[in-house]
Amino acid sequence: MKRIGIVGSGIGGLAASIRLAVQGLEVEVFEALPGPGGKLDSIEGGGYRFDKGPSLFTMPRLVEELFELAECDMGPYFGYQTIPEACRYFWDDQTRLTASASIEDFDAEVARVLGEDRGAVASYLEQSRRLYEQTRPLFLERSLHKISTYLSPEVFKAFGALGSVRWDLSLHRTNQKRFRNPKTVQLFDRFATYNGSNPYRTPSVMQIIPHLEHGIGTFLPLGGMHSIPKALHRLAVDLGVIFHFNTPVAQIETEKRRATALILERGDRLDFDLVLSNADVYTTYARLLPDFDLPKRIERAERSSSAVIFYWGINAHFDELGLHNIFFSNDYRSEFDSIFERKELGNDPTVYVNIGSKYEPGDAPNNCENWFVMVNSPASYGQNWAREVEILRSRVVERLSRVLGRSIEDLIEFEEIVNPVQIEEWTRSHRGALYGTASNDLFSAFLRHPNKGSRIENLYFCGGSVHPGGGIPLCLLSAKIATDHIAADVR
Ligand code: FAD
Predict the structure, then answer these.
(1) pTM tops 0.90
(2) What residue owns the CA closest to ligand 1's atom 44?
C-alpha cells in the first residue's frame, strides 16, 4: 500500500485525505495548528462563539460528494440549512436592499429600490449561470496543465463559450453596461471580492461568481462554518486517516526529483511514497523545499486581498440586520485603488457584518449578537498594522453607528481583532492573503500553480493558493484534481 504524507489540514487537505483513503492509500496528515480546518477556525470568549474565517457557504454539494465517495451517511456527521436571503445591503444615504435568495424577488427589489428595469437582474444572473455552466469544465474541474483536458468534448465546448466573453472588459465595465444605477453596479462589482480580486481589473468572466450565491444558493452549516472541517476530520478518521496536530513540518526531503520523506520541526523523519502539500504554495517552496528555488511566477504573482476582522460581542439585537450584511463605501474605485495599488486601508472602507447567531442563537448570550466585522485590506507588506487598525476601528464604528442610528461602541462587550500579519501567522499563508493569488488579469487562471508540479515527480498541491483558486468550493475542487493526478500516477 502506498503511503502519502499531507502537509496541512485546511479544507483542501481534509478533502484530499478522504479521497486518498477511499482510493486505498495509507494517509497521514501533519498540521501545525492544534486542530483541523486551517482558516475555518473558531474562537470563543465572553459567552460568544465566532467562526474565525469564512462565513459564506456555497456549493454544499461538494461536501456531500465526499460522504458519497466514502459510502457513508452524512446525517450523523454534517447538516446545513438553506438561507432565504443572500445579503442585506446598506448605503450611507439610507438606501437599503435585501437580496432575496429567489431571483424573481431579488429582481423585483432591485427594480423597486434602485430603479433598474424589471428583468435586468434576472437576465444578468441567467448569463452568469450560462457562463458558469459552460466554463466550469475548463476552469474549475480539471487540470489546466494536462493535454487530456484540452481533448475532452466538454472543454472544447467551454472554449466555444469563451468566444462570447468580452475579454477586453473588466467586471466593473461589464456591470456598468448592464445597469443604470451606480449602486447596482457596486452591488455586482462586490463579487470580485469573493476571490480577493479588484472589480476594476478582474476580467468580465468573473460574472460567473454571483451564480454561486443567487443561482445555487447560500447555506449555513448547522453549528456554524467550523462544523465543515469538524465533520470532514471525523469522516477521515473513520476511514483510517492518521492526524498529527501541533506538528509543523520543517522540510519535504527530496532526492533527485522525488519527495522521499517529511522532516518534522521536532526532528523526526518519516518516509513517504508521495507527498501532498495543502500549505500555501509560496511557503511550501520558500520554507519546506530548501533545494529548490521559488518558481518565478509564484514569486511575482499578485497576492489576493487580506482582511482586518473585528470579532465583537454585541449586547443588543438588531432586527434590521441579517446573516450577511454589507455597508458600502461611497467611493468603491478609490477603495480598491487603496487595497491593490497603494497597499493601504482606504479612509472610506466597505464593511461586512456577519451575524451567525441569527441562525445559531447558542453562539451569543440572550438578546446579544456575535458580529464578525470584516474589512478587505491589502496583503501584508510591512504596513504599521497597529496604527492602521486603530484608525480603521473608529471609521468602522462611525459608519455602522451612523447607518444604524445607534452608538455601536457602547454595545461592544467582547472584542478580538485579527490583522493580515496575524492571518499569516495563524495559517502560514504568504502575506496573509485570504485567497492565494489575485485574479486581477486575464491570465491569472493559467498562471496559478498546478496541482502537480513539474519539478518534483511525486509532490502534489491542493488548497486556495493553487489551481483552481481560493474559497471553500474551489479548495474542495483542488483536492479532487490533485487526487485524480495521484490516482493516475499510482495506478
Ligand atoms: P488553509 O485554510 O490555508 O490551511 C492550510 C493549513 O496548512 C493550515 O492549517 C496551516 O496551519 C497548515 N500548514 C501550513 N504550513 C504547514 C507546515 N509547515 N506544517 C504543518 N501544517 C502546515 N472562503 C469562502 O468560501 N467563503 C468565505 O466567506 C470566506 N471568507 C474568508 C474570510 C477570512 C477571514 C479568511 C481568512 C478566509 C476566507 N475565505 C472564504 C477563504 C477560505 O477560507 C480559504 O480559501 C480556504 O479555507 C483555504 O483552505 P486551504 O485548503 O487552502 O487551507
Answers:
(1) yes
(2) 471
